[in-house]
Amino acid sequence: MDLTDTQRRHLRNLAHPRKPIVTIGRNGLTDAVLAELEQALTHHELVKIKVNIGDRDARNGTVQELCERTHAELVQRIGHVATLFRRNPDEPKITLDPA
After folding, report:
1. Cα 6 to Cα 31: distance, rounded to the nearest angstrom
2. Which residues, listed in sequence order, are joined to residue 82 by a DSSP beta bridge?
3. How many CA atoms lie within 13 A of 25 on its CB side?
4. What range does the domain containing 12 cover?
5. How, if at all, do strands 22-24 and 46-51 pair?
6. 66 within some domain
């Protein structure tokens, strides 16, 4: 699912007051982290994650790998925090404006 600019803007507005609910630490991308992220995306659809990796390239690679492995869309990334979106096909919670 490719998001339009309008949809990304809408999701950024919805994500703004939210806190990161998944944190990736120095152990990196573990099965436990992926399981937690899968559960969070299924339940919330829109989640913020904190990636505590100092190197920018490694941080970008980790966020990209998360998106690929969870089939989520990157809404935005600012510093160590990334916002991901994945529609729940059974119970959609967030309405995206048609664009």
Report:
1. 33
2. 49, 77
3. 2
4. 5-85
5. parallel
6. yes
